[in-house]
Amino acid sequence: MLDVISNFMEHLDIKKNIELGRKIFENIPNSLKPDWAGLILSRFSNFLIKLPEEVQELFSIIEDQNKWRLAHNQFTKIRMLSLNNNNFKPESYLILAEKVAKITYNSSNSPAPFDIDSGWYIPSLAIQTAESFEEPILKEKIISDIFIFKDNNNLLRDLSTTRIYLQEMRNN
After folding, report:
1. Which domain holds residue 40?
2. Which residue in 21, 30, 131, 154 has the fewest CB atoms around it within 10 Å?
3. Distance of alpha carbon 21 from alpha carbon 26, whole angstroms
4. What are the C-alpha distances in Å from 16 to residues 11, 98, 109, 122?
C-alpha cells in the first residue's frame, strides 16, 4: 500500500519537481531518449485538431538514428511555429515538441548540443499537456510512458529491441 501511495505522490510531484524530471531522463540510455520522448509526444497526436507538419517531420527524424542530427533545424522550425502561433493550444505541447527535438539532436552526438537539461522538462511538460486535454486515459498513458524504464530492467537489456518496441508503441 505504501508503494502505491509513494508512486501516486511521485506522479503528482512530477509537474513541479525538475529534479525528478532529471532523474527520470538520466535513467534512460542515450540511444533510447529520442524514441522515449517521441512516444510521449505522439500520445497527443489524436487529441489535436491538426498535427503540425513540423512535429510530423520530427517523428520521421526520430525514426532514423542517421537523421537525428537534423533535429537541430527541426527545433528551429518548431520554435518558429510556436512564436508565430500564440493561440496554439495547448501551448505546452509545442514546448514539449521543442524539447524532444533538442534531446534528439543531442543524442546524435553532433557538435554544439542544446542545454543538457532539455530532457529534464519532458515529464513535466507531458503531464501539463495531458491535463489540458482532460482525458484521464491519456494522462495514465503519459505517466506510464514517463516511467517506462522504472523497475523494468528487461527493457534495458536489449536496447535495439527496446527501440523497436518504443517505435511500435508510437505508431499504434
Report:
1. 19-171
2. 154
3. 8
4. 10, 19, 29, 12
